[in-house]
């Protein structure tokens, strides 16, 4: 039982990170139909900012907002430079563009920083643990869960209460008509990228705080997982992305913990098999987006 | 000479090889109700969408209120005082009624003007006030059409472009919609309305243009057109 609870905490921590990443992918996809595979590189950028801040002796308290600022700014810049010129192209063109952006950034990281994994200095407190009701919980896991919850609440408030948040939902549903209302296409899309960059930054900090290192390909695996999570939840659906992220986190952690040792080798295929099973039962994902029409008159 | 509020010159709209609008000219004077008629595929929506900036023009010029608005981005138009309520209503179904209306007032800054817009729309459509927290997607077709018009009114436009507001509605609701067009016009809104319901449209309109294959086939005072017996057969696909 104790092991189960312990693993459940781990699943929430990992699932929360996937949820934040999947949400970042979904926000951009819902607005402009782009699956941004360079999302992972936004994570990597935030990771490197943490690393450099550590090297420069800047306290973690300041490093975190700097890292978030960097990934947010990088996301907006990415849209402006790479995605705006292909905005009205097909989904495939945008997808390929995002692969190109990801590869260019990876090569830049490898050449300008290092091919190898670099250590990131983290506050000691993060590697400690605390006892809650007989459970030993890593501080980093706890921080991950709390940060995820805060981000989800923040985003939910923004999208349901703020004029610009409502405009983003309107644009996600019918971009052309949103424009007819006077909602500027450029502003909404830049806003979507800013939010996705912020989410990638938070996810990066949580990811790095579990591993204490950063490398040029750091973002690849988690964003691939987030992509699976977004599809699992229903591509373009924000609530779906969150649900898919958590479900994937649970599947991975529980399989790692409870699969018999002989089967551990097949953990990933079994996990993906479960995902496929869910999609066979719910082809549009757990909580599909209301409007799947990528209308762009 | 007073300039027309909306002036369209040699408007040309193409989708690849498809010539949807073929060099049409027309104008709408301040305070008029103008009907744009024509069979399916005649180019009515293409005309409105081109004016609103939703589709690019291939040639020609659109002047509104003394300003050249040809190929202006759609988000710029509400600020100039012209809004389009598009074909098929297209309310934001996953937003509440009130959120839909709020989006209609997106570009407005003055809180007094915004408050007046809410008042006006909720007075015109009490049902929308009643249903303000309901998802727009769960409204009936007629209610959605009222929301679509209400949303377009939230920016307090001088001119309203309506694309088939009576489409798919029950006869009683259609009557309400045409009454509404008259009411809005009496409130000072100039209206360009695309319609398939020819008789009703000609009843409320001052003048009408009839499109066929992207060209203006005939035009004139609404009552003259209504009296002409061969209008239906000649241009509107019979019946
Ligand atoms: N996005 C598009 N791509 C290609 N062709 C289009 C597009 N939109 C319209 N057309 C074509 O342009 C022509 C005019 O279409 P339009 O929608 O303007 O007609 P309409 O008069 O509004 O018809 P309806 O009464 O059916 O709404 C039609 O032949 C139509 O097939
Ligand atoms: Mg039409």
Please give the alpha-carbon distance between the first and last residues of chain A. Answer: 55 Å
CATH architecture of the domain at 6-90 and 161-235 in chain B: 3-Layer(aba) Sandwich
Number of strands of chain A: 4
Shape of chain A: globular
Helix content of chain B: 25-40%
Largest sheet descriptor of chain A: 2 strands, antiparallel
Structure class of chain A:
mainly alpha
What fraction of the residues of chain B are assigned to beta strands by DSSP? 25-35%
Q: What spatial order of strands do you see in the largest sheet of chain A?
A: 1-4
Mean pLDDT value of chain B:
93
Family (chain B): Belongs to the ABC transporter superfamily.
Pfam families (chain B): ABC_tran
GO molecular function, one term (chain B): ATP binding
Organism (chain B): Maritalea mediterranea
Layout of secondary structure:
The complex is a heterodimer of chains A (297) and B (239).
Chain A: H1 2-32, H2 39-55, H3 60-83, H4 91-112, E1 118-119, H5 124-127, E2 129-132, E3 135-138, H6 139-161, H7 163-173, H8 175-180, H9 185-211, E4 213-214, H10 220-233, H11 238-258, H12 267-281
Helix pairs in contact in A: 1-6, 1-7, 1-9, 1-10, 1-11, 2-3, 2-9, 3-9, 6-7, 6-9, 7-9, 10-11, 11-12
Chain B: E1 6-15, E2 18-28, E3 33-38, H1 44-52, E4 59-64, E5 67-68, H2 77-80, E6 82-85, H3 97-104, H4 111-124, H5 126-130, H6 141-153, E7 159-163, H7 171-186, E8 190-194, H8 198-204, E9 207-212, E10 215-221, H9 222-227, H10 231-235
Parallel strand pairs in B: 3-8, 3-9, 6-7, 7-8
Antiparallel strand pairs in B: 1-2, 1-4, 4-5, 9-10
Helix pairs in contact in B: 3-6
The site of adenosine-5'-triphosphate has 12 residues of chain B, from strand 2 and helix 1.
Describe, in plain words, how this protein is organized in 3D.
The complex is a heterodimer of chains A (297) and B (239). Chain A is mostly helical and 297 residues long. Chain A has a domain at 17-219. Chain A has helices spanning 2-32, 39-55, 60-83, 91-112, 124-127, 139-161, 163-173, 175-180, 185-211, 220-233, 238-258, 267-281; strands spanning 118-119, 129-132, 135-138, 213-214. In chain A, the strands form two sheets. In chain A, strands 1-4 form a two-stranded antiparallel ribbon. In chain A, a hairpin with a 2-residue loop joins strand 2 and strand 3. In chain A, helix 2 (39-55) runs antiparallel to helix 3, helix 7 packs across helix 9 (185-211) and helix 11 runs antiparallel to helix 12 (267-281). Chain A is globular. Residues 292-297 of chain A have low confidence and may be disordered. Chain B has 239 residues and is an alpha/beta fold. Chain B has a domain at 6-90 and 161-235: Rossmann fold, CATH 3.40.50. Helix content of chain B is 36%, strand content 26%. Chain B has ten helices and ten strands. Chain B has a six-stranded mixed beta sheet with strand order 6-7-8-3-9-10, sandwiched between helices. In chain B, strands 2-1-4-5 form a four-stranded antiparallel beta sheet, with helices on one face. In chain B, a hairpin with a 2-residue loop joins strand 1 (6-15) and strand 2 (18-28). In chain B, helix 3 (97-104) packs parallel to helix 6. The longest helix of chain B is centred in the C-terminal third of the chain and has 16 residues, at 171-186. Chain B is globular, with a radius of gyration of 17 Å. The A-B interface holds A 163, 166-167, 169-170, 173-174, 176-185, 290-291, 297 and B 49, 52, 54-55, 73-79, 83-84, 86, 90, 92-95, 99-100, 102-104, 106-107, 137, 151, 155. Chain A: Keywords: Amino-acid transport, Cell inner membrane, Cell membrane, Membrane, Transmembrane, Transmembrane helix, Transport. Chain A: Its main location: membrane. Chain A: This is Branched-chain amino acid ABC transporter permease. Chain A: Belongs to the binding-protein-dependent transport system permease family. LivHM subfamily. Chain A: It is found in: Cell membrane.
């Amino acid at each position: 039982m104790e092991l189960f609870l312990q693993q459940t905490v781990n699943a929430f921590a990992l699932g929360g990170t996937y949820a934040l990443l999947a949400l970042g992918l979904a926000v951009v996809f819902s607005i402009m139909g782009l699956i941004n595979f360079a999302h992972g590189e936004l994570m990597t950028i935030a990771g490197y900012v943490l690393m450099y801040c550590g090297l420069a002796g800047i306290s973690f308290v300041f490093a975190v907002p700097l890292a978030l600022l960097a990934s947010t700014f990088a996301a907006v810049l990415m849209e402006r430079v790479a995605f705006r010129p292909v905005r009205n192209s097909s989904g495939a063109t945008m997808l390929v563009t995002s692969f190109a952006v990801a590869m260019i950034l990876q090569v830049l990281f490898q050449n300008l920083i290092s091919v190898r994994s670099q250590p990131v200095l983290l506050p000691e407190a993060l590697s400690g643990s605390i006892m809650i009701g007989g459970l030993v919980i890593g501080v980093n896991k706890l921080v991950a869960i709390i940060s995820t919850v805060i981000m989800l609440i923040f985003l939910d408030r923004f999208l349901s209460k703020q004029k610009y948040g409502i405009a983003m939902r309107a644009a996600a549903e019918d971009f052309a008509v949103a424009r007819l209302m006077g909602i500027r296409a450029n502003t909404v899309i830049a806003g979507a990228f800013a939010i996705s960059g912020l989410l990638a930054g938070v996810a990066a900090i949580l990811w790095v705080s579990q591993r204490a290192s950063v490398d040029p390909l750091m973002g690849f695996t988690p964003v691939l997982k987030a992509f699976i999570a977004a599809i699992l939840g229903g591509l373009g659906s924000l609530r779906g992305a969150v649900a898919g992220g958590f479900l994937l986190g649970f599947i991975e952690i529980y399989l790692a913990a409870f699969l018999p040792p002989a089967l551990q080798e097949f953990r990933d295929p079994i996990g993906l098999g479960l995902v496929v099973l869910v999609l066979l039962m719910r082809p549009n994902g757990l909580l599909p987006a209301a409007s799947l029409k990528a209308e762009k008159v | 000479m007073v300039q027309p509020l909306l002036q369209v010159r040699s408007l040309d709209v193409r989708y690849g090889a498809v010539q949807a609008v073929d060099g049409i000219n027309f104008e709408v004077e301040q305070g008029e109700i103008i009907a744009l008629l024509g069979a399916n595929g005649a180019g009515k929506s293409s005309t409105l969408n081109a004016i609103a900036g939703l589709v690019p023009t291939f040639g020609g010029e659109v002047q509104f209120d003394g300003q050249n608005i040809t190929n202006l981005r759609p988000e710029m138009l509400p600020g100039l005082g012209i809004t389009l309520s598009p074909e098929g209503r297209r309310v934001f179904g996953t937003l509440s009624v009130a959120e839909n209306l709020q989006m209609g007032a997106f570009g407005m800054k003055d809180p007094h003007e915004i408050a007046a817009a809410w008042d006006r729309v909720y007075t015109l459509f009490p049902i929308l006030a009643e249903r303000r927290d309901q998802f727009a997607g769960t409204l009936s077709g007629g209610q959605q059409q009222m929301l679509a018009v209400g949303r377009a009114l939230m920016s307090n436009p001088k001119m309203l472009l309506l694309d088939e507001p009576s489409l798919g509605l029950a006869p009683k609701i259609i009557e309400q919609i045409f009454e509404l067009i008259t009411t809005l016009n009496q409130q000072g809104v100039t209206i360009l309305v695309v319609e398939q319901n020819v008789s009703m449209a000609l009843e409320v309109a001052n003048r009408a243009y009839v499109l066929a294959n992207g060209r203006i086939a005939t035009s004139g005072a609404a009552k003259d057109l209504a009296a002409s017996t061969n209008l239906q057969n000649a241009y509107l696909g019979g019946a």
